[in-house]
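Narrative of activities, Objective 1.

The group set out to show that a structural description can be obtained from nothing but a protein's sequence at a throughput compatible with the screening campaign. Below is one input-output pair from the validation batch, recorded exactly as produced.
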Amino acid sequence: MTLSKSAGTPPVRCAFSYNWFPEAWKQQGLNPFTHDHPTAGFYDSSDATKAKADVAALQGAKVDCSIDSWWGQGTRTDEREAGLLAAADGTGFKRTIYYEPEGTGNPNPAQIGDDLAHLATYATGPNWLTQGGRPVIFVYGDGSDGCDMVDRWASAPHRSSWYVVLKVFAGYQSCANQPDDWHQYGPAERTDQQGSHSFTISPGFWKANEATPRLPRDLSAWKTAIQEMVASGAHWQLISTWNEWGEGTAIEPATEWGTSYLDALADDGSATTTAGRPESANVAFAPAADATISMDAPTWNRGSSSRIVADGSPVQDALLRFDVNTGGCAITHAVLNVTVDSRLNSG
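Output recorded for this entry:
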């Protein structure tokens, strides 16, 4: 599949990606370190076949590029980057990296320059994301960052050859030195806009070792966030994330939500129904009076003539949305038994 526009032509839609599996499945005494269950299973990021499938899935969702977490020279994320780039051969899909060392320390200009020289061996290939003829790099940061961080990057060797997108911090607009662009990474917030620089969206945030989500998943809110992102006209339209399973921010297909989050991106957040997916599954029919539906959990829909009969399972096990006017019935759970009696005519 090829893109309808050049992946380097603004606005550019990119997803943050984490290629640290299988190592990251086991963390902090938990295995797997996630509340959710990827459809692909607990995979290995080195799997070339899966990498190609990921490119196809992202392109199907109108995602132009991947921002791959990179932890330094010689790390597994570094060793895997060549294979990830190769997976995009002939597709028009682009990749760049997320420079993580800036988030765990303050690399000096010499170290930054050395890393840029190393990354240039990847960035000279046709599958690396560019802007204005220069390879792009996204840079993470930490809460203590200030204008000195920008200064370190401005004075690094090889800096002028790169299009640098730094993470924002309080007062970033006032720094004497400015990078090529700015972005935010804060997936506990549904949306974030940094002027015309970037607009970032998140499907939810539920860390594996936390009892409750910081940002609950809500497919309707996700669609609204996509619409706002598209309408923003921001240069960078960013998705956090493709597959950060440990923080519960993934939009990669899962048992819990199927392909719903990707489907919504493919439709720019405008679609109301999509067939055959757990969070957006539909049953089309013409409603009849006193229709009876049996399901795993009780819920009532105001304004409909439907009667829901529960079998005693927990309420959170399922949610049925039934619109009498349109005849649409959307079931938002992957594990759900539904029977429809003969008084509902198939559509």
